[in-house]
Amino acid sequence: MGRKLLLDKAHIEGIRYYDVYRKNGGYAAAEKALKSMSPDQVTEEVKKSGMRGRGGAGFPTGLKWSFLAKPEGVPRYLVCNADESEPGTFKDRYLMEFLPHLLIEGLLISSFALGANTTYIYIRGEYAWIPDILEEAIAEAHKNGWLGKNIQGSGFDLNIYVQRGAGAYICGEETALIESLEGKRGTPRIKPPFPAVKGLYQCPTVVNNVETLAAIVPIINIGGDEYAKIGIGKSAGTKLISACGNLNKPGVYEIEMNISVEEFIYSDEYCGGIPNGKRLKACIPGGSSVPIVPANLLLTTAKGEKRMMTYESLNDGGFATGTMMGSGGFIVLDEDQCVVRHTLSLARFYHHESCGQCSPCREGTGWMEKVLKNIEHGKGKMSDIDLLWDIQRKIEGNTICPLGDAAAWPVAAAIRHFRDEFEWHVLHPDEAQRRNFGLAHY
Ligand code: NAI
Ligand code: SF4
Fold first, then answer.
1. What's the pLDDT score for residue 39?
2. What residues flank ligand 1, with Cβ below 6 Å?
């Protein structure tokens, strides 16, 4: 049984409420940090832990914190990115819904380390019921002296505010999120400057994902060195994976990053295999923005070793062979699923969510959707497959934010690994049309 650092108490009845959380060891890490550590010592522990950001990019958290500019007399902000919108990703929702005090404790320790007295949780609009849960927990934390002025006599002040998004995927991109938080339209800014230097209201800002901030609690509880021993190499600690698609037991799992992909999919401790004994066809292991990978490459590396659930192993060989850990949104496709249809559905999503600032993304995503729709509906030509390849190549690396790459990569990987399926649609137009009967909205 793998070690659990985040979800170890998730099963305790009433853990959502302050009294139960506190009785079960809650706020012990905050107490330790505020009473016996300096902000720099907290940052040092986070650096030692080797924990990488859990939102998708995997940037080392301690390093990001150390980039925060600290000009005299200028406020600093911590922003919790709870705009979890990546298709297939729902782990942060689980944390916020069932363990809101774990997040608040993590925010408190992190704000203390960064010297931020105002912290925002920016939550996606579709998580309509969760702000109430967070606000109730924030009120409880205030009442019990964990927020507000002079927290637990430490001299440190902190207020946390919850801000609801309005349903735009792009507002999960940190600079678009900041724009939205400032009351403007959520469009990404050009980086640099990074938020660590010029973020919210042009002040130094750290933007971290929900899971990243929650993981600060166990890091302080057990110490950075101990945390770093869990997992393999630069994939330190535990990671939440939201598993969905053709699985017997979809759900949110906390894994130590030392198990194989095969174990994660097939063992009863995790996903319990594919329903009805079907064959595994492909998987997107890190949310829709990372490349799809066929079963053979997913389970085994080029060297014939088992592929592991780590940042390095999943990314082995780049996206040509491996893929990425991303946000941990693990989407499984069995042998009955159509990769072309699946790719069309993603292309449609990215076209809809493009903010329209850069032409390769604005025009390219729509173009890819159109071409894919033709192929899927049996109206495509062989040359359309090359056209599709060409369009995605022209988007990748030519846009302001990663949404362009995220739209291009799934198309590239689908053609690279499943070109025969695209060709089948062109060669069997009647059958392709018949399969889509009644599904015209796609
Ligand atoms: P990124 O690699 O540009 O940045 C990572 C973080 O490090 C950012 O906070 C950035 O400000 C910071 N950083 C990097 N270099 C820095 C420097 N020199 N100085 C100061 N700070 C620096 O990636 P980004 O845009 O934050 O995330 C992209 C990923 O997000 C995608 O790969 C995807 O997996 C994931 N994603 C997750 C979603 C979700 O719902 N969880 C939704 C969409 C995408
Ligand atoms: Fe907007 Fe797309 Fe450009 Fe990102 S890549 S800034 S979403 S147009």
1. 98
2. 55-57, 59, 64, 67, 84-86, 89, 172-174, 194-196, 207, 286-287, 289, 326-327, 402
Residue having the nearest C-alpha atom to atom 1 of ligand 2: 355
pTM of the shown model? 0.96
Tokens representing residue 165 in the block:
């998004």
Q: What percent of the chain has pLDDT over 90?
A: 92
Pick the closest to residue 316 from 300, 299, 326, 301 (CA basis).
301
Contact (CB, 8 A) for 411 and 421: no
Would you put residue 167 in left (φ > 0), alpha (ψ -120 to 50) or beta?
left
CB 247 within 8 A of CB 72: no
Q: Which tokens hold the place of 16?
A: 């959502």
Given this model, what pLDDT does residue 435 score? 78
Whether the CB of 188 sits within 6 Å of ligand 2: yes
- Are 404 and 361 contacting, i.e. CB atoms less than 8 angstroms apart? yes
- Both ends of the chain: CA-CA distance in Å? 42
Compute the distance between CA of residue 45 and CA of residue 219 in angstroms, rounded to an integer.
7
ipTM of the complex in this document:
0.96
Tokens of 11: 């099963």
Is 400 near ligand 2, meaning CB less than 6 Å away? Answer: yes
pLDDT tens readout for residues 293-311? 999 999 998 788 999 999 9
403 in ligand 2 pocket by Cβ < 6 Å?
A: yes
What are the pLDDT digits (tens) for 362-383?
999 999 999 999 999 999 999 9
- Cα-based angle 361, 314, 173 (whole degrees, multiple of 5): 35
What confidence tens digit (pLDDT) does each residue in 64-81 have?
999 999 999 999 999 999
In whole angstroms, give the CA distance from residue 219 to residue 63: 15
For residue 66, the ligand closest to its alpha carbon is 1
Q: How is 268-314 classified by DSSP, letter by letter?
A: TTTT---GGGPPEEEEETT-TTSPPEEHHHHHB-TTSPBPBSSHHHH
CB 301 within 8 A of CB 292: no
Phi/psi at 66 (5° precision): -75, -15
* Cβ 292 vs Cβ 274: under 8 Å: no
- Pocket probe for ligand 1: among 174, 177, 205, the residue whose CB has the most ligand atoms within 8 Å is 174
- Mean pLDDT (the chain, rounded): 95
Which H or E run includes 362?
A: helix 359-376
pLDDT of residue 303: 83
Determine phi and psi for 253, rounding to 5 degrees.
Answer: -120, 145
